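ERR on first pass: missing label on line 2. Operator R.T. fixed the label and resubmitted. Corrected input:
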Amino acid sequence: MTLSRADVEKVSLLARLLLSESELDTMTTQLVRIVGYVEQLGELNTDNVQPMAHALELHNVFADDVQHEHLDRAAALANAPKHDAECYRVPAVLGE
Amino acid sequence: MTLLQTAASELLRDLEARRVSSRELTEAYLAQIEKHDGQVKAFLHVDREGALAQAKDIDDRRAAGKPVGKLAGLPVAIKDVLCTKGVVTTCGSKMLENFKPPYDATVIAKLKAADAVLIGKTNMDEFAMGGSTENSAFFKTRNPWDLERVPGGSSGGAAACLAASMAPLSIGTDTGGSIRQPAAFCGVTGLKPTYGRVSRYGLVAFASSLDQIGPMAASAKDTALLLDAIAGHDPLDSTSVPLDVPNYSASIDQPLAGLKLGRVKEHFGPGLDPEIEAAVNEAIRVFTGLGATVVDISLPHSKYGISTYYIIAPSEASSNLARYDGVHFGYRTDEKAMLAELEAEQKQLAAAGDERGLKNLDTSLIRMYRKSRAEGFGPEVKRRIMLGTYTLSAGYYDAYYLKALKVRRLIRGDYDKAFEQVDFIIGPTTPSPAFKLGEKTDDPLSMYLEDLYTVTANLAGIGGISIPCGQTKAGLPIGLQLQCRPFDEERLLRAGHMFQQATDWHTKRPKLG
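pass 2 clean. output:
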């Protein structure tokens, strides 16, 4: 599978990144090399191998259903680049 | 100067006996930082006032006969990836340049409870992605042994501050070798505990199934002291393991009889620097002299470690770093300029009658996300987000991500089989000694290949330690890696200590200008 510049541009939208024309060129060259390298995994037969998503084969961990302390609103908003007394502020989402 | 050369465990005894005060000790380390960190640049932030206030408080309580914690009065440096309440935590990123966490990471809370003196936050590769600390958005840290060379990474500041005697204890994190590789490059001891041994609560996530916080120090004995303070189950991290924690310091002096070591033949192949090979073989002879037996073993899938890692880690990173959206916290692009730019693009497309272009044009919210992330993240972080987004995307998930998870199982299987035969796996930590600044920055793949001997421990979730075992002719430190069965850190540290009782590589320190 080869990765085209158009693929890289599409992935940049999925990743919510905005790449300049020259970044797109560099990124395409580098990703083609890296993806080309990791394709070595294709030489292994893994038909009967269970995927291992995690180092610990953990089962669900349950907590008691009790109320805990939580961050108060001011603390939760304190690091936001833009906020008012109650909410995070973002650019208009709906059309004008 | 002698205070700075004393082992942390001895300093603790001196503090307890009140032969030295925490204030004197903290002042000595602060003076060393003042004197040399302009060159080494290990610290992003030194908390002079906070540290001195903490030291004074501990001295006062000790003098009054009140109870104090188990590290009471010892300075500890913190990699700037652990949340410290009210103190800027940057992750080496412009994205978090002004981020003040509203809570402490569990490890920070434990260190505070142990009355460690938090002396400052150390430099790192942005979001812990890298092997040289050159990916920090702020500045490059230099290797105290040779200022033209990198300290390794991503815990480069954490290792460099130890080598430069700017702190006796240091906290790092390891996702693919980020404690062990800089420990090797800087001639210090660094432990990556088994996954689940130390709580990750409040650790800024890179790859959640691989990340682990660990202790770094001059020696295995001091490393054990720090692990005692941070290990254990935490209800706030459901992947931390509810197992009893041994008292690592209590048993550290007991040597291990009848040790069986496995020498991985794949770790001695082409690409290994001959001086490192010789030093590691000499270290194996030291162990043999201490009564260990050594057998050759094979980890047949280790050559797939880098590929597996560079699919799984970026995939998890692309998901974890989606939280940096310029809304809740972190950097946001200049909104006015962004909106003006978008409007200009829209007009241009409309004038050209480009219906498709207009339809595909970002909404203002999407553009705000994209521009904030484009400006807030550095090139390596973008590269990994892109790689991970690609390997998780529709049509490629099975070929890359799922395939990598299956190979991960095979890599773990290799270790399980090896540990039926041996107690520890022994070999080099890195294929080559510290490289020059700028040497690998244009070639990300060659930087990735540096992790060859370390990534598989993260994939398998086992423990590993790097201890100094020699120097090259040019005077650069060499690291010996020992890997252990899950949750066998107690014996791993004892093995490291045994080695350090028989050698003096861990006592060597660079001459600073």
